[in-house]
Amino acid sequence: MRPRGSLLKQVIRQRELFFMVIPVMIYVFIFSYLPLRGWLMAFQFFRPGRDVQEWAGLHHFRFLFTDPVFFRVMRNTLGMSIINLVLGFSCAIFLALMINEIRRRLFKRVVQTISYLPHFLSWVIASAMVADFLASGGILNRILMALGFISEPNIFMANADYFWWIIGWSNIWKSVGWNTIIYLAAISSIDPELYESAELDGAGRFARMWHITLPGIKSTILVLVILQIGWILNAGFEMQFLLSNDLTISTAETIDVFVIRYGIAQRNFSLGTAMGMFKTVVSIILLTGANLFAKRFAKEGLM
Amino acid sequence: MKTKTADRIFFTFNTIFMLFIVVVMLYPFVNTLAISFNNATDSLKGGITVWPRMFTTSNYKTVFENPLLLTAFRNSVLRTVISTAGGLLVCSMAAYVVSRKEFVFRKIVTVYFIMTMYVSAGLIPTFFLFRDLNLLNTFYVFWVPGLFGAFNVIVIRTFMQGLPDSLVEAARIDGAGEFRTFLQVVLPVCKPVLATVGLWIAVGNWNDWVTNNFFASNRSELTTLQYELMKQLASAMAQMSNQQAGFFAQQGQAAFQNITPIAIRSTITIVAAVPILCVYPFLQKYFVKGVHVGSVKG
Description:
In chain A, about 70% of the residues lie in helices and about 0% in strands. Chain A is mainly α. At the A-B interface, helix 1, helix 2, helix 4, helix 5 and helix 6 of A face helix 1, helix 4, helix 5, helix 6 and helix 10 of B.
């Protein structure tokens, strides 16, 4: 539009905007970009308080990638992520379809509001509630005993085999209601005439769900799935950190828990940083890919 | 006629299913509420479900007379208020600048902000940054590092871009500078989006225990409600794995204490959850709006 030479003039004319944004940019630099300097620790034998750090090259990465603990941690992270992905999407879509079928508006609103409740509770509160629910005197054991499935209480929280599923279902409990919002919005934008003509053609309720509602929100689902795959290394760490104990750590330890246990608790800062750096770098690659893919898809699709 | 019957069966089934969902969502909360109003020693026997067996308000008395928990409550409130006010100011100011179409570096600055959503240095580098800035174990660590949020900026910016251009132009003709235009003309009409983002920041701060646990755990006067709760949960977990290993002594010990972990934990849980539960049903539409804006952005 304007010749290049006037850039300086423009900057001077817009100085007020710069006065507003530069402090924020400096702030962002300090708190978001400056910490990246700490990645150097991954290439050092870092000890706080030393003036000159000893270089380690790729030592910590080599150690990580040959350590069986790393593979266990990756397995746990991916395992819990995949459970979250599959359970999370199918439950949220199913619940949205069912909520959509409720006729009485007040009942619908009440159900929706109550289903959002766990979303607003902190992970600490959610974890405490899960622990109580699964406790030896908790409601699940009492129900199972009353129904005769078990004769004595099962200590769920002490069994490593259950841990992934406890996290998976806890995540469903906490987020399924909230996740229906987006599907319900997508469903409400489907042309009602489609339903009317299908009904005239004699399509039943389930046929309409299957042939109109689901295809109508297909692109929304796909975009969300693609984006979620980008976050696959983020299996969450708060619940795993709060609910794991010595008996379950073998299946509870995700990348983030590893960083805390080795990096912070055992003060092996370099190893912890190497692990954190690995996670961020792989995540950036996955997220960039997922974003490009989702955008391309969103353009072609209905969104 | 046949479809009518099929419909009725479906609606009955759906209503039962929804009631099941409602029970599942509410039960843990109601259970915690019942335990918080039940006699602490009695709760140890277990078996409290939706109604207290031996009603008492003494757990609440214990919690509200405990100076540490009062400090925790005060800190939680204080950090939430400061973070929300400060966060809204910082985010909306950044959003205003990148929403101005004529701003020469709009693209670059936007990318500079968005990048922060993807690049995170991680816990350990953050720890050392806070140490170098002398933020560790000070109240500042609760609000100073978290004022900026790229997603919040994008959401506010998107809203501002939807405002009519004439708004800013009219202010310009009146001779208002950028800062005055932002503060007196644009911000007042941004109330809906500021409510949305403000609620996110407030809930996030109120629910945060990570900051306290990793960056401010050395000074007991810097505790927050969620952190106190986390400590209770951690000791319950440790107790459980000890019991499994055969240290039953611990359980007997707990019975001698005037207040037992489960009772106090439930009471703090209720105290920490109630403010949010009082607010969210009425402000739902603001929360929900954010979900849509976020999804459009992709």
